[in-house]
Design a protein that fits this description.
- The chain is of the alpha/beta class and 477 residues long.
- The chain folds into three domains: 224 residues, FAD/NAD(P)-binding domain; 111 residues, FAD/NAD(P)-binding domain (3-Layer(bba) Sandwich); 114 residues, Enolase-like, domain 1.
- Helix content is 32%, strand content 26%.
- It contains 14 helices and 21 strands.
- It is globular and about 70 Å long.
- The chain binds flavin-adenine dinucleotide and 1,4-dihydronicotinamide adenine dinucleotide.
- The site of 1,4-dihydronicotinamide adenine dinucleotide (NAI) has 25 residues, from α6 and β17.
């Protein structure tokens, strides 16, 4: 029998949490391996996890394609650009998406080679412990057992199905199915008005689907600042995205060519809706299937997440867990930061992830982004605060772009002026939010941001103006 290969660190899962953790560990001089089972057509590995294969990257590719299509159809005319015979080749759009995903898969494989991370393509599971080494079984083309001083679990999450309604990815679609619909459905139903529902609903609405989103909660986008959620609801309704709140889904009947959803509306009325396809986007569940948690006594919480402390330590010696499979927001950048922090801790360094400054972005158009506290949270916590808002309609660059919807808002502590939150709905909110994250990381006040030179004409001037607005001294409003 060949000797078991032993590593300082073995990472199980090659999504944004796992692959970044592996790279950082290798950079710190630790002998590192990463095991990932995702496979693309032809049997090749597809590193990058949910994010790269059926999440962040492909969804943004489709959002960009369909945004271009919508702009060409609706926004170009006012620039004097006449477009006739506009059409969308869905097959070509999906092929472009697949190419981008493949480039990212290959990019991560290159980064592993560059950083000397050993990659094992297959399913990883705890097999036991010998001395101070964890034994990890890899089931792949060449099954083998490897040993690790430290293990990082980064096995991610999977889509949550409606009880009794399994995904078939023909009529009832999870995120993977929603990203690969081969033709534009005439009637598209979506269960859940969360991030996936809004992004995927936008993609297919732009291509001509009649989109209806059924949401269980009575309020829209409860995690966002109320003013942003209100503006978003107004803009989405104007775009033709039908969002029905306070819905209880009673029955889903899957037919050969359609799906029927019976639901009870907010007013108690029983409704029936028929769709060609139904996206179910009601959140995600941690993924630990076949990990061997029972074999080694790895503790999961009641919801199935791997239980960790603030430093991502599990109940097992030298075993950590990061990303979607542990508590906290299910975001790629949160998974990455935890991965880096854990690798640094294993190498004896001190690392910290600041959960107060994790930005959220919804890549609809206009985009929605925020960091820090909302007004409703601060009211609940009894914190005195001041706010400053600035509308894009008063920003020169936004006017030139033809993108004047929305606003940018700062919330600052009433006594110290320290920034507690930044909330944006408008063009390129995803990029603008970085300034709020930076400001909060450095403990900046709204006055600090107001005094920073911002290039003219840029959307970022709205950031400066919103900061000035906290002290009621905007210059351009
Ligand atoms: P994952 O990315 O899920 O990776 C886990 C990996 O582990 C997978 O490759 C899996 O195959 C592998 N694995 C699991 N178990 C084993 C095992 N036992 N052995 C071997 N391999 C195993 N987040 C953002 O921040 N921005 C976005 O724009 C964004 N868009 C999204 C859009 C959609 C449609 C979806 C579904 C998600 C989106 N997310 C976004 C969320 C983001 O994808 C996740 O938060 C992120 O992928 C979590 O990273 P992770 O490394 O924890 O897990
Ligand atoms: P989500 O948590 O964002 O939204 C789920 C929505 O479904 C909620 O509004 C919830 O109230 C509703 N819901 C739950 N059960 C329901 C039911 N039975 N009937 C009707 N509505 C119901 O989850 P989503 O959209 O599935 O996305 C999963 C996660 O993936 C997100 O939480 C996010 O972490 C990540 N993601 C991030 C993106 C980004 O950063 N831009 C994009 C897409 C996903």
């Amino acid at each position: 029998m060949p000797d078991t290969q032993a590593f300082d660190v073995v990472v199980i899962g090659g999504g944004p949490g796992g692959y970044v953790a592996a790279i950082r560990a290798a950079q710190l001089g630790l002998a590192t391996a990463c095991i990932d089972e995702w496979t693309r057509e032809g049997g090749k590995p597809a590193l990058g996890g949910t994010c790269t294969n059926v999440g962040c990257i492909p969804s943004k590719a489709l959002l960009q394609s369909t945004e271009n299509y919508e702009h060409a159809g609706h926004a170009f005319a006012e620039h004097g650009i006449e477009v006739s015979g506009l059409s969308m080749d869905v097959g070509k759009m999906l092929a472009r998406k697949a190419k981008i995903v493949g480039q990212n898969n290959d990019g991560i494989a290159y980064l592993f080679r560059k950083n000397k991370v050993s990659f094992f393509h297959g399913h990883g599971a705890f097999a036991g412990r010998e001395g101070d080494l964890w034994q990890i079984r890899v089931e792949g083309a060449k099954p083998e057992t490897i040993a690790a001083k430290h293990v990082i679990i980064a096995t991610g999450s999977a889509p949550r199905a409606l009880p009794g309604v399994p995904f078939d990815n023909v009529r009832v679609l999870d995120n993977g199915g929603a990203l690969a619909i081969p033709d534009v459905p005439k009637r598209l139903g979506v269960i859940g008005a969360g991030v996936i529902g809004l992004e995927m609903g936008s993609v297919w609405r732009r291509l001509g689907s009649d989109v209806t989103i059924l949401e269980a909660l009575p309020q829209f986008l409860g995690a966002a600042d109320e003013a942003v959620a209100k503006e978003a609801a107004r803009l989405f309704a104007k775009q033709g995205l039908a969002i029905v709140l306070g819905v209880k889904t009673d029955k889903v009947k899957v037919g050969k060519n359609d799906v029927t959803v019976e639901y009870t509306g907010e007013n108690g009325a029983r409704e029936t809706a028929k769709f060609d396809r139904l996206i179910v986007s009601i959140g995600r569940v941690p993924y630990t299937a076949g990990l061997g948690a029972d074999t080694v006594g790895l503790k999961l919480d009641v919801r199935g997440f791997v239980e960790v402390d603030d430093a991502c330590r599990t109940n097992l010696a030298d075993v950590y867990a990061i990303g979607d499979v542990v508590r906290g927001p299910m975001l790629a950048h949160k998974a990455e930061e935890e991965g880096v922090a854990v690798a640094e801790r294993i190498a004896g360094q001190h690392a910290h992830v600041d959960f107060n400054t994790i930005p959220w972005v919804i890549y609809t158009w206009p985009e929605i982004a925020w960091v820090g506290k909302t007004e409703q949270q601060l009211k609940q916590e009894g914190v005195a605060y001041r706010t400053g808002s600035f509308p894009y309609s008063a920003n020169g660059r936004a006017r030139a772009l033809g993108e004047t919807s929305g606003f940018l808002k700062f919330i600052a502590d009433a006594a110290t002026d320290r920034i507690l939150g930044m909330h944006v709905i408008g063009p390129w909110a995803s990029e603008l939010i970085a300034e709020g994250v930076m400001a909060m990381e450095f403990g900046a006040s709204s006055e600090d941001v107001a005094r920073i030179v911002h290039a003219h004409p840029t959307l970022s001037e709205a950031t400066k103006e919103a900061a000035l607005a906290v002290d009621k001294r905007t210059l351009n409003l």
